[in-house]
Amino acid sequence: MSQFLRTWFPNVVMNWSGDNGFVQAIYETLYMTFVSAIFAGILGLILGIILVITDTNGILPHAKFYNVLDKLVNLFRSIPFVILLAVIGPFTKFIVGQTIGPTGALVPLIVGTAPFFARQVQLALVEVDPGVIEAARAMGLSPWKIIYRVYLKEGLPELIRSGTLTLISLIGLTAMAGAVGGGGLGNMAIAVGYQRFQNDVTFVSMILILVLVFVVQGLGDWAIKKLEH
Amino acid sequence: MTTNTQTNIIELKNVAVHFQTSDRQVDAVQDVSLTVTAGDVYGIIGYSGAGKSTLVRVINLLQRPNQGEVWVNGQNLMTFKPAALRAARRNIGMIFQHFNLMNSRTVFGNVEFPLLDLKMSAAQRTEKVNKLLDLVGLSSMAQSYPSQLSGGQKQRVAIARALANDPQILISDEATSALDPQTTTDILNLLADVNRKLHITIVIITHEMDAIKQICQHVAVMDQGRLIEQGSLLDIFGHPQQPLTKKFVDSSTQLTPALQEIKKSGLIQPHKQNLIELKFLGNSAQEPIVVALYKKFQVEANILFSNIEQLQGTTVGIMLLLLNGTNENINAAWQYLQQSQVEVKQIKYSEIEVD
């Protein structure tokens, strides 16, 4: 087995451990993915909920507020991620004190993902049967309770579907962030594999990212299956 | 002298609701006033689009009216702050055409849902939910999910949920319109039970006269945002005034279709005015009219159609008779009928519309 690896993936074996090795890259990718997922998830969830409830048919309609937020979400979703990385450099430095490395990638990843997830949350929650919301209002529930007892509970399978989708797109973004100084498997594939013509490194980086994507997708599908009745 | 102990539990005063669309204003409800007394089963009937759903949503202010006042239990709900209004809504249960159950919760969870905010121990909640499920006959389905239930079972869960807060009022928004006839009857019987046993005032909206007939004590007819007629079930059924009301009553008695069939069949001759409609209310239904006509006037009465039903314990009957005899005898019989307890009306052949 190890002979097989040494023959077909010599550079992978050589680069496995150590400061710039695969183990470190995997850790960096996971770090970027999950830390930004937590922040973008919370931010996107809050923004998505605000979009749903302030919409004209929402439980707390507020046309002006909705319009401004709606436009902002669209604006940030429209900026290509590579450009966003550069544009918000000073802001990133202000927040986390550095613009390179996995931590420097967190801010642009969050800013790039939160609006996308907010829109996904909005679409998921709008799907909740308006009749159920009306029944809850008729029962005398406060808006806050309608949000967490009805919207989030009834919309949970859809939210997990959106969350899975967002997480997978986030993994894609971490690879891009990695290529411009963020580290991780994206950096491995480009800076080591591509630029030094070590194709086996590029190939294995891709496989590892695919494994991560499949695990996320699998967990998401499993959770949805558990929750849907 | 009898003392009138009836209290007005719901009073709508000159209520109007408009909706603004991009190019025009829709007057969903216009100048509606109605009073429901405690313990009543009050039906509002009308075609879809008449404004019934909007009107009942005014009662718990899910729909705030543009004009008018909403009084429930002697309190003007329009003056309530949000928290007080939410408390008032817990006193008004509501069931819907499409049940509006939460798919993510079990039957038990759905009925428990309105109780989650009350100061109750989990054991007390469980006891209460079980009692409610027992009332609607679904104890065995407690751990099922709504997607596993039939329409009638879903509506039973919705009724149990609506009763969880021990409301004084139950609003039924087309609750039987998505159900088959047998299930409709079962659900209406359950609502009648709820009214009788728990003394809950019920407001029903529907487009089916049969639903009204089965359980309502008072009826209002709604058309294009207005209440065009209201009264006791017997009044509305026995003496409908407005054309639309007559149409709804007809849809239940099937009198008009019967007349059309008679005309098409050519059974009666156009020049003879001997087709009469008899309407019995209450005790008069027990008089042997047909026999009397023959014995007293030698007039043969051929029964072409009859429909007899029990409304709130009172018999209401409609009969179409084709009289056969000499003109003189028929005239005498006519005089006799007009003096009897029975309402009698001559049907003019030309007035029967055949489509």
Largest interface: A-B, 20 and 33 residues
Q: Helix share of residues of chain A?
A: over 70%
Mean pLDDT of chain B: 89
Total beta-strand segments of chain A:
0
| E-strand count of chain B | 14
Instruction: Write the H/E string of chain B, N to C.
Output: EEEHEEHEHHHEHEHEEHHHEHEEHE
**Which regions of chain A have little confidence, pLDDT < 50, spanning 5+ residues?**
none
Q: Regarding CATH, which class of the largest domain in chain B?
A: Alpha Beta
Architecture per CATH nomenclature, i.e. the level-2 architecture of chain A: Orthogonal Bundle
Strand order of the largest sheet of chain B: 6-7-8-3-9-10
Protein name (chain B): ABC transporter, ATP-binding protein
Keywords (chain B): Amino-acid transport, ATP-binding, Cell membrane, Membrane, Nucleotide-binding, Translocase, Transport
GO molecular function (chain B): ATP binding; ATP hydrolysis activity
InterPro entries (chain B): AAA+_ATPase (IPR003593), ABC_transporter-like_ATP-bd (IPR003439), ABC_transporter-like_CS (IPR017871), ACT-like_dom_sf (IPR045865), MetN_ABC (IPR041701), MetN_ABC_transporter-like (IPR050086), NIL_domain (IPR018449), P-loop_NTPase (IPR027417)
Describe this structure as you would to a colleague.
The complex is a heterodimer of chains A (229) and B (355). By secondary structure, chain A is mostly helical. In chain A, 83% of the residues lie in helices and 0% in strands. Chain B has 355 residues and is of the alpha/beta class. Chain B is built from 12 helices and 14 strands. In chain B, the strands form 3 sheets. Chain B has a 6-stranded mixed β-sheet with strand order 6-7-8-3-9-10, with helices on both faces. In chain B, strands 2-1-4-5 form a 4-stranded antiparallel β-sheet, with helices on one face. In chain B, a hairpin with a 2-residue loop joins strand 12 (300-311) and strand 13 (314-324). The radius of gyration of chain B is 24 Å and the shape is elongated. Chain B starts with 7 loop residues before the first strand and ends in a 9-residue tail after the last strand. At the A-B interface, helix 8 and helix 9 of A face helix 2 and strand 6 of B.
